[in-house]
Amino acid sequence: MFNGTVGVRHIVDKVEAKGRFSVLEHPMSPRALAAPLHRHHNEDEYSWIIEGRVGALLGDEVLYGGPGDFIFKPRGQWHTFWNAGDEPARILEIISPAGFEQFFDELSDLGGIDKVSTEALDALCARYGLEMDVDSVPELCKRFDLVFPGEPI
């Protein structure tokens, strides 16, 4: 599934992990911003880089990693991530506790982040305890030389 910025493949869902965690794979096209600046109120996210070069903004800290590197995005912290390279990138995303993985399904049903109405996105974010700063996208793209939305891969 492609939600307008990155691919989403469900690997472990909340049923399989008894609600403790979920695991997703996110393939990202070159130089693609994965999401606007955002923060989760209910979940921690752990990103394991499988392929490519990935950048992340955690608060004011900018991190870069490659295959085998791990990025922790704690709940309550403003963050985003992107493919920092000119080749495709992939991460495994562990979300704890489980449940937020369904956000991506609902977002896809609404047409993806680049097509959803502001009202529908606000309602979706509220249901999942997510704050999203969509106005951050132009500055992030300029600062890190990115595109938004990305291309399906």
List the helices and strands and how they pair.
Layout: E1 9-12, E2 22-28, E3 37-40, E4 44-51, E5 54-58, E6 61-65, E7 70-73, E8 79-83, E9 89-96, H1 101-109, H2 118-127, E10 130-133, H3 137-144
Antiparallel strand pairs: 1-2, 2-9, 3-10, 4-7, 4-9, 5-6, 5-8
CATH superfamily heading: Jelly Rolls
N→C terminal distance:
10 Å
N-to-C SSE series? EEEEEEEEEHHEH
Evaluate the radius of gyration: 14 Å
What's the mean pLDDT score?
Answer: 93
Specify the CATH class. Answer: Mainly Beta
Low-confidence stretches: none
The name of the CATH topology is: Jelly Rolls
CATH architecture heading: Sandwich
What does this structure look like?
A hairpin with a 2-residue loop joins strand 5 and strand 6. This protein has a 5-stranded antiparallel sheet, with no helix packed on it. A 3-stranded antiparallel sheet has the order 6-5-8, with no helix packed on it. The protein has a two-stranded antiparallel ribbon with strand order 3-10. The protein contains 3 helices and 10 strands, in the order βββββββββααβα. The model has no long low-confidence stretch (mean pLDDT 93). The longest helix has 10 residues, at 118-127. The chain is of the alpha+beta class and 153 residues long. The chain starts with 8 loop residues before the first strand and ends in a 9-residue tail after the last helix. It has helices spanning 101-109, 118-127, 137-144, and strands at 9-12, 22-28, 37-40, 44-51, 54-58, 61-65, 70-73, 79-83, 89-96, 130-133. The protein is globular. It has one domain: Jelly Rolls (Sandwich).
